Amino acid sequence: MMKKMIFLFNPRSGKEAIKNQLSDILGIFCRAGYLPSVYVTQEPGDAAKIAEEYGSEVELFVCSGGDGTLNSVISGIMKLKKRPEIGYLPSGSTNDFARSLKIPANLTEAARDVVSGKSYGVDIGKFGDQRYFVYIAAFGAFTEVSYSTPQDVKNVLGHQAYILESIKALGKLKSYKRRGIYLRNGDKYHECRRIQRTRSEGCFVP
User: Fold this and answer.
1) Is the predicted pLDDT of residue 106 greater than 50, yes or no?
2) What is the DSSP letter of 85?
3) Cα separation, 164 vs 152, whole angstroms
4) What is the pLDDT of residues 121-173, one digit of tens each?
5) How many CA atoms lie within 13 Å of 164's alpha carbon, on the beta-carbon side?
């Protein structure tokens, strides 16, 4: 019996490199004994819907795209009681998460690692009852840059597109009143305080 898997990919992420490697990637999955169902993302957020609706029916859920695609899949999978293992083929403009875990930038090499490597756990963060994040959460000035940068510009300029969008955002900055921020760890709350002798504010748990 072949093992069931879903392969979801964002065809526009990065410089659309996955289009030329799709056949090789699917071949790797098939040779490893998987019967892949393929979904091509159509709009923002639908990766989470596919993950939530079909994730419990497969043994492996593989996604390819940028950090946003991965985070969307994680958001859907985390709502399931029965969760499949997740594989990630990084094909975005920056791929911070993949670099931090030393996931190969080469898509076919990453695909081989998914089916032949060992799985391991990673921490998943959560805002409120619905919002999950896989490696970073941000708020305040410039937070919207990751979402407002046009995909077409990212495909041409790569990481530099975010820098240009940040420069544009400078003209829209407003004055923010500093408020208290707290982290909860179980039943304990910790206040985020200003870190001295730095140029920016940060958060630490005393």
Assistant:
1) yes
2) E
3) 13
4) 888 888 777 778 776 665 555 556 555 555 555 555 555 655 555 556 555 65
5) 10
Q: What is the pLDDT of residues 64-86, one digit of tens each?
A: 998 889 989 999 999 999 999 99
Q: Which has the closest alpha carbon to 111: 47, 49, 44, 23? A: 23
d(CA 11, CA 106): 16
How far, CA to CA in Å, does 173 sit from each of 139, 144, 163?
Answer: 13, 12, 15
Q: Are strands 131-133 and 125-127 parallel, antiparallel or unpaired?
A: antiparallel
Instruction: Classify residue 186 as exposed, middle or buried by CB count within 10 Å of its CB (0-12, 13-18, 19+).
Output: exposed
Burial class of residue 50 (count of CB atoms within 10 Å of its CB; 0-12, 13-18, 19+) = buried
* Residue linked to tokens 């950090």: 67
What is the token pair recorded at 156?
Answer: 């041409």
DSSP letters of 68-82? HHHHHHHHHHTT-SS
Provide the strand spans (E) within the chain: 3-9, 34-40, 60-65, 85-90, 125-127, 131-133, 181-185, 188-192
Average pLDDT value over all residues in the chain: 78
Torsion angle of C-alpha atoms 93, 97, 100, 104, degrees rounded to 10: -60
Q: Which of 159, 80, 46 is nearest to 63 (CA)?
A: 46
